[in-house]
Specification:
573 residues, alpha/beta, Protein-Tyrosine Phosphatase, Chain A, FAD/NAD(P)-binding domain, 3 domains, 7-stranded mixed sheet, 5-stranded mixed sheet, 16 helices, 29% helix, globular, FAD/NAD-bd_sf, hydrolase activity, sulfide:quinone oxidoreductase activity
């Protein structure tokens, strides 16, 4: 937790954990204001839990929950009253801190000028410029309040790998295009590297850079969170209630890690031997546990699909087992892999090589076995299997959490029945809205959710988005390519590359890299080349081995929708 000070008496913060409450007390705060309703995300502590933790720390709590995108005058008045009445210094929080900063800004607008309010917010790291009209209205300016900003040519929701790569690919093709990216985070992560952090190969600092440093030049960075969509009006609603217009929308929201879906997991994650490489702050703990374990039971889990990088749960296990083997400990450690899937890997051509390592390390492979509960204090894990539930004692456990579509996507008009952005799996255009595209982990296409998939998808979306802007039909198609470099031991990788339906799509000739067998060259690709390609190629608009395939002629249209210029946009068949 890093609070951002707006005034001497008020700071704001993203979502607090229960541990952060004690840290807030240590930093001198006397009261916490909760601006986030319960149930927005499965991993957030309830208001009641925050009250309990605050009471134990001697802090006061006020709850003024605000629905994203709906900051009302009543909410503003309650927030202003709370600041007058509560003992300070006060720490207010929501999902990103934006709602809390917005409430303060609108509450202060009666007495402070919009420029002063916006400058204070910007100094704290919150760009509230979209609120200017509303601030001026509250300050007494004669101009009327208009909540909708001008429309951008392309509005991208999400500043992860998919969103940044798409913006870079667009600009590589058309300089000067008006592109805005909605992204509240200050840091950008190379998530494929977290497996190597957990295996003692990378320092986690190699996987992190500031968002500002990767944002393409010429792109407007909107440091806020999206809260909803109005595709019929070509608008996105932000967390503070303002809206942004667009001619083309690109939804790249990523996927949510549903830690709360496993009973007891949140309370013990990061201690009691329970870890996960799916969190930046937790991967070093994985390596700590691996080094410290000399005998006992080590469990590794995989939840039902879809998940980010289906091979990552196994990668953690193989790297750990290889370390124990190299240090003469593997004989005293019982390694177990409990996966919800009916097979070790979804593409059969790679299973034989993986099974050799399962046998080499003596791994107890349990298929159709789903983690449902964790008792961290007693180090016991409960799994649901076809013949009932079984509880296993462990000394360390690496957990891959269930994953789902973000809440603001799943409940929007953009969602498919799965909750993810509903797209045509070839053109990646939305199934109902002709000027909307989706890609990355948050879209419904049935490909493997990997950074390699996003690398291939971004140019497809860029080409097709420009076509729609020009009143033409999308012609670039995505074939489902995904890559999963399975680190079976330190120094060797099984390089799985495949597309829709599990069709193999190797990037190199078999005499150079046989993806079905462990390879030293593939390890060098993973350790040395891919991180460099990510930072200096993919995020910069260089499409090495990622040029989109083009249909020879525009496909026959079978439906139409209104494009940003009010003319018919017909969908590809």
């Amino acid at each position: 937790m890093t609070p951002k000070q707006l005034t001497p008496g008020l700071s704001v913060s993203p979502q607090l954990s229960l541990a952060d409450v004690g840290a807030a007390q240590a930093q001198g705060f006397r009261t916490i204001i909760v601006n986030r309703p319960d149930g927005e995300e499965p991993d957030q502590p309830t208001i009641a839990a925050i009250r309990h933790a605050a009471g134990a720390a001697g802090l006061g709590v006020a709850a003024i929950p605000v629905t994203p995108g709906k900051v009302s005058d009543e909410d503003i008045a309650q927030f202003a009253d709370a600041l007058r009445m509560l003992e300070g210094p006060v720490l207010a929080y929501c999902r990103t801190g934006t709602r809390s900063a917005t409430l303060w800004a609108l509450a202060e607008a009666k007495t402070l000028s919009p420029d002063a309010v916006l400058k204070a917010a910007a100094t704290a790291g919150y760009d509230l410029s979209q609120l200017r009209d509303r601030l001026e209205e509250r300050h007494g300016d004669v101009r009327s309040f208009s909540p909708t900003a001008r429309a951008h040519d392309v509005l991208i929701v999400g500043g992860g790998a998919a969103g940044i790569a798409t913006a870079a690919s667009l600009l590589a093709r058309r300089r000067g295009l008006d592109i805005a990216i909605i992204e509240p985070r200050e840091e950008h992560y190379y998530q494929p590297g977290w497996t190597l952090v957990g295996g003692g190969v990378f320092d986690r600092r190699r996987t992190q850079r500031s968002m500002a440093s990767v944002m393409p030049k010429g792109v407007t960075w909107i440091r806020a969170a999206a809260a909803g969509f109005r595709p019929e009006a070509n608008e996105v609603v932000l967390e503070d209630g303002t809206t942004l217009g667009y001619r083309v929308l690109v939804a790249a929201p990523g996927v949510m890690l549903d830690w709360a879906a496993i009973d007891g997991l949140e309370a013990t994650l990061g201690r009691n031997g329970v870890t996960s490489n799916y969190r930046f702050d937790m991967a070093p703990y994985t390596w700590e546990l691996i080094q410290g374990l000399r005998e006992g039971v080590a469990l590794f889990t995989q939840p039902p699909m879809p998940i980010k990088c289906a091979g990552a749960p196994q990668k953690a296990m193989y790297l750990a087992s290889d370390f124990w083997r190299r240090n003469g400990r593997i004989g005293g450690i019982d390694v177990g892999f409990n996966t919800s899937t009916p097979a070790l890997f979804g593409v059969k051509e790679y299973v034989a090589a993986l099974m050799e390592y399962v046998d080499t390390y003596g791994i107890d492979l349990q298929l159709n076995s789903t983690l449902v509960a964790v008792d961290g204090e007693h180090r016991r894990a409960t799994f649901r299997r076809a013949d009932g539930e079984v509880t296993i004692a462990f000394d360390m456990m690496h957990v891959t959490p269930p994953q789902r579509a973000p809440h603001f996507i799943a409940e929007s008009a953009l969602a498919a029945s799965s909750g993810f952005v509903d797209v045509d799996q070839q053109t990646l255009r939305h199934s109902h809205f002709g000027n909307v595209f989706g890609l990355g982990d948050g879209c419904s296409a049935p490909n493997a959710k990997t950074a390699a998939a996003a690398r291939k998808q971004a140019p497809v979306v860029a080409v097709n988005a420009l076509a729609v802007l020009d009143g033409k039909e999308p012609r670039a198609i995505y074939d489902g390519y995904g890559s999963c470099p399975l680190t079976v031991e330190r120094g060797k990788i099984v390089l799985a590359e495949f597309g829709y339906g599990g069709v193999l799509q190797p990037s190199f000739p078999k005499w150079l890299v046989n993806g079905e067998r462990p390879s030293r060259l593939s390890w060098l690709l993973k350790e040395k080349a891919l991180p460099w390609i990510y930072w200096n190629g993919m995020l910069k608009g260089h499409e090495w081995l990622a040029k989109p395939e083009m249909l020879p002629h525009a496909p026959t249209p079978h439906a139409s929708a209104a494009n940003p210029c009010g003319e018919p946009v017909r969908r590809a068949s």
